[in-house]
Amino acid sequence: MTTTILSPAEIQQHRAETNGTAKVIHFNNAGSSLPPDVVTNTVIAYLQEEATYGGYETEAKYQRQLDNTYDLIARLINAHRDEVAIVESASVGWGLVFNGIDFKPGDEIITSEMEYVTNLMGFLNAKKNHDVIFKVVPNDDEGNFSMQGLEDAITPKTKLIAITQVPSTAGGMIPVAEIGKVARAHGILYLVDACQSAGQLPVDVEEIGCDMLSVTGRKYLRAPRGTGFLYVRKTVQDQLKLILIDSHSADWVSETEFKPRNDARRFELYEKNRGLTLGLGKAIEYALNIGIDRIWKRIQYLADTMRNSLRQIGGVNVHDFGPEQCGIVTFSVAELDGAAVKSKLKEQGINVSLAKAISTLIYMNKNHLEGIVRASVHYYNTEEEIEAMCEVLRSMLSALTD
């Protein structure tokens, strides 16, 4: 793949193909990105055809394009199409495989202090229902995931390593490929939450070495809300119990027997929004045509620009850490509540998010952080938009001293 940077002309083209960029400055891409117009138009056109000609009939007409979504996902993450299931969200996908693991009393789960709240709730639920133990690997003195801490936490009872690659409330990243090598060496199941990763940076399940990976569509993939997908390695599929079953996920063998499908679509149910599925495919195709490596370089450049600009503003504290940082920028403004900062920016047509402590509670509690501001860039953002946000922040701080 080419590693050239996105040219100014290309950036303007992508902005022209994204209606929302003319309306707002959108720094909430880690929440939900602005979709390309082709994605929105694809979904609307499909729904209109359903309403005109019928749901089953429209599905039959677009069956090839619907099936191609699996191929696009497989290309995106370097998997086989038989290892891909389309689901409504990363949380749904994550929950289907996590709860499909045959946990026994005393089994151990290892995670990081950056793990997302929904996943932590899943661990607690497994502890309650199956008497499992979950261990949190603390960050090292530099604030990074400790590989030695991971090795020290592993015992013969370790059943699963579950890691979120890009944390929700910090700009750092977890070394998922290095963790994968450890998981493989010990023969431990490995589940990666790539909710914030896919569409932002290259995600290669073979390089990562994970057995399962969950992704949402609405974030950096720029797909519609209510879309996502799940990767389950072929050799692992039979190890997982099916949580939900219908005539799509399994074959009816006899009146007393059924057999799960021989691919990852065993984790799907038949009924889903076909229009959104097409929209997900269009969004992935759009990203692949640009080049994920090129998107990643642009995002890193913009995020570095934003962090450097914020650090030059007296009274602004940037909280990101780690040797490699992503498109999520977290910061706080002296004497101002994070919610108030978000609200003031919103008044000026600038979207950011409030990173609440509950999202990554272990990390936030450890660092005595509550609600901090999260600004997340995408390749269609510009340096001028970053400066506009910084100007608003400077005005807010200046007003405090007046």
TrEMBL record:
Key words, A-Z: Aminotransferase, Pyridoxal phosphate, Transferase
Domain named Aminotransferase class V: residues: 27-388
Xref: Pfam families: Aminotran_5
Gene3D superfamilies per UniProt: Aspartate Aminotransferase, domain 1, Type I PLP-dependent aspartate aminotransferase-like (Major domain)
GO molecular function per UniProt: transaminase activity
Necessary cofactors: pyridoxal 5'-phosphate
Protein family membership: Belongs to the class-V pyridoxal-phosphate-dependent aminotransferase family.
Protein name: Aminotransferase class V-fold PLP-dependent enzyme
Organism whose genome encodes this protein: Mucilaginibacter psychrotolerans
